[in-house]
Design a protein that fits this description.
By secondary structure, the protein is α/β, with parallel strands linked by helices. About 45% of the residues lie in helices and about 15% in strands. The radius of gyration is 18 Å and the shape is globular. Bound molecules: NADP nicotinamide-adenine-dinucleotide phosphate. The site of NADP nicotinamide-adenine-dinucleotide phosphate (NAP) has 28 residues, from α2 and α6.
């Protein structure tokens, strides 16, 4: 990581992150901390992160983002803790929590599908809306973790892909809404990344060629670089950028069957087992 990155991050004194308990969210915390050790972190997830650096200043807020009343109550506590421990600088909000489910809709069940929408979309709008006055007061950035699934319909990940398309468009539009307020947005679109995501989503094997797979460290590094460069959108890696461009350029009614062809190869037949309700 380039040393000049520090200067941009040094404007930020507090980070609110969802899903720091694993995968990309966890790596983002560690990667930011490596650059600047003076930030204070608030993590919202159901489980507490276990492996954060001992010198990290942070607090875990147990929160199921599928439950709106938990978001409201938790955000009140987060704001109080930031007032006390979060310095006077800008605030970085990282909406990272999310999950998907592999299989034809509505497998594994409708409740699970609605849960994907709650966490991947509604919780992001809810948390951002509640924290926006604080961000406007201090200045800051809303970083949303979308996906390359945002760029085309994703059969077998039908609801998941649509939530990520929402997140991409919402983030870019929000950036325009917020012009002149001192708050900007960045939407990050990783492709297949080696985390718990695929296991949780019920995949037997990742849906695309293993050569496309990135590590959560790589995704975190790309995200931070884009943050420092003031970008509003970053697709992680040239192979993913190529896929995203193709997904965007193809007419939707063609990109849907093309995506179905590739996603069907993820050994759908091995999925005829109950998927966990996560
Ligand atoms: N891995 C990929 O290939 C990939 C590709 C593109 C985009 N993404 C996106 O990257 C983000 C992070 O995923 P990941 O790959 O790092 O997977 P991961 O390791 O499974 O992490 C998912 C995180 O989301 C949190 N989460 C899930 N449901 C939640 C809930 N109801 N309430 C609060 N937090 C919840 C989890 O925390 P708890 O379980 O502790 O609550 C966990 O920390 C997601 O938005 C995902 O869609 C991933």
């Amino acid at each position: 990581m380039n040393k000049s990155h520090k200067s941009v991050l040094s404007r930020i004194s507090a980070v609110v992150v969802t899903g720091g308990s694993s995968g990309i969210g966890n790596r983002l915390i560690k990667a930011i901390h490596k650059i600047d050790q003076n930030l204070f972190y608030c993590n919202l997830s159901r489980t507490e992160p276990q492996d954060l650096p001992p010198d990290l200043r942070w607090k875990h807020f147990p929160c199921d983002l599928a439950e709106p009343e938990q978001i409201t109550a938790t955000t009140r506590s987060v704001q109080a803790v930031i007032d006390e421990n979060g310095g006077q600088g800008e605030v970085l909000l990282i909406n990272n929590s999310g999950f998907g489910s592999y299989g034809p809709f509505p497998e594994p069940n409708l409740e699970h599908q609605l849960g994907i929408m709650e966490v991947n979309m509604k919780a992001v709008v809810h948390l951002t809306g509640l924290l926006l006055p604080l961000l406007k007061k201090r200045g800051g950035v809303v970083m949303n973790i979308a996906s390359t699934a945002s760029f085309q319909p994703t059969p077998y990940l039908t609801t998941y892909g649509a939530t990520k398309a929402f997140l991409l468009n919402w983030s870019l539009a929000l950036h325009e809404d917020l012009k002149g307020t001192g708050v900007r947005t960045l939407v990050v679109c990783p492709g297949p990344t080696a985390t718990n995501f695929f296991k949780r989503a019920g995949f037997a094997t990742p849906p695309t060629d293993v050569h496309l797979k990135q590590t959560s460290e790589e995704v975190a590094e790309i995200s931070i670089k884009a943050l420092q460069e003031g970008k509003t959108l970053v697709v992680c890696g040239w192979k993913n950028r190529l896929m995203a461009t193709m997904g965007s350029l193809l007419p939707k009614k063609i990109s849907a069957p093309v995506a179905a062809y590739f996603l069907r190869r993820a050994r759908l037949e091995e999925f005829r087992r109950p998927l966990r309700g996560k």
